[in-house]
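[step 3/7] inverse_fold.run input=structure_tokens len=218
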């Protein structure tokens, strides 16, 4: 395991928020003429586990995203090459980086032993979503069996440390966001060997992903 700790980020006024047992921010209470009125606190931080493509695969994904954008006349801009990834498990969104949640996620990940495995994607299509925010993604088929099995092991480990949340795993790589729906189409397969998985801290609204720790597959 390789730790890449960043400085702890805290809310500018920690007295303005509290959290539930599920680690999500609760609204602040303010008083108006004697009545308590909840004020929503917007999450600023996300934690998730991911697998990133190697440099060659990431470059091929970027080239494919640009080709599809041009061929289909899409307006959405492809994600930055270093941001292409497969989300294994979305742990949650928080106000500030929760070090207790990071510690539990680290404990779960450290318990997993698995060899490297191949992932391959051979289709492009849109997921439904809000207009102007429909993801154009890569999907795969039977070649993702090892990935699915690994994700199941991670889910079990997270449940063991008390971080189980409702999670449906649909293996994909997001290329861009677009207001149009793109029908499924075959692509030249993009594949790579997954050799590690990563705990990622995403700063919401800043399009910034910060790796906190990496675990090699061997």
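[step 3/7] decode complete -> sequence:
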């Amino acid at each position: 395991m390789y730790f890449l700790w960043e400085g702890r980020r805290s809310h500018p006024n920690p007295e303005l928020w509290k959290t539930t047992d599920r680690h999500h921010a609760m609204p602040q209470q303010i008083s108006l003429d004697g009545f308590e009125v909840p004020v929503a606190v917007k999450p600023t931080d996300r934690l998730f586990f991911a697998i990133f493509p190697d440099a060659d695969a990431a470059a091929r994904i970027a080239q494919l995203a640009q080709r599809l954008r041009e061929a289909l006349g899409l307006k959405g801009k492809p994600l930055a090459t270093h941001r292409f990834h497969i989300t294994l498990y979305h742990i949650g969104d928080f106000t500030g980086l929760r070090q207790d949640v990071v510690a539990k996620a680290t404990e779960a990940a450290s318990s997993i032993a698995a060899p490297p495995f191949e992932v391959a994607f051979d289709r492009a299509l849109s997921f439904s979503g809000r207009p102007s925010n429909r993801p154009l993604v890569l999907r795969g088929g039977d070649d993702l069996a090892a990935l699915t099995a690994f994700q199941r092991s991670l889910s079990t480990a997270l449940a063991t440390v008390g971080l189980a949340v409702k999670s449906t795993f649909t293996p994909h790589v997001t290329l861009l966001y677009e207001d149009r729906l793109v029908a499924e189409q075959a692509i030249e397969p993009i594949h790579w060997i997954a050799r590690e998985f990563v705990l990622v801290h995403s700063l919401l609204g800043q399009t910034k992903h910060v790796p906190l720790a990496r675990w090699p597959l061997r």
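[step 4/7] annotate
The radius of gyration is 19 Å.
The domain at 2-216 is CATH 3.90.1140.10 (Cyclic Phosphodiesterase; Chain: A,).
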